[in-house]
């Protein structure tokens, strides 16, 4: 990832950015649900991401009680780099596997996850 100049994002921050790439301009409470991060952790991560120019807090209608989290243009451009990294990682993970082996592996993971959800 460093050769893509992506080095200032930790896993929790990556989870936040991924959630925002799916749906931007959302309240902090919604972001907490989507990321499964506690309020204090989320606030700390948002502060860091705001300081590094990845997102901004927006107060609609100057209502300080309601805060929306919005990605910056800088971060929207960075999303393309993340997609490139993700594609490279996928190629590395599955290198040498036949298509049917990948499908069987992913099927097993999905069954394991479904089993855990039902426990």
Commentary on this structure:
This protein has helices spanning 11-22, 28-35, 39-51, 73-94, 99-118, and strands spanning 26-27, 55-58, 68-71. By secondary structure, the protein is mostly helical. The chain starts with 10 loop residues before the first helix and ends with a helix. The mean pLDDT is 87.
Sheet of most strands? 3 strands, antiparallel
CATH architecture: Orthogonal Bundle
The CATH topology? Arc Repressor Mutant, subunit A
Percentage of residues in DSSP E strands: 5-15%
Distance separating the two termini: 37 Å
What are the main properties of this structure?
Arc Repressor Mutant, subunit A; three-stranded antiparallel β-sheet; 5 helices; globular
Task: Describe the structure concisely.
With 119 residues, the chain is mainly alpha-helical. It has helices spanning 11-22, 28-35, 39-51, 73-94, 99-118, and strands at 26-27, 55-58, 68-71. The radius of gyration is 18 Å and the shape is globular.
What is the strand and helix layout of this fold?
Layout: H1 11-22, E1 26-27, H2 28-35, H3 39-51, E2 55-58, E3 68-71, H4 73-94, H5 99-118
Antiparallel strand pairs: 1-3, 2-3
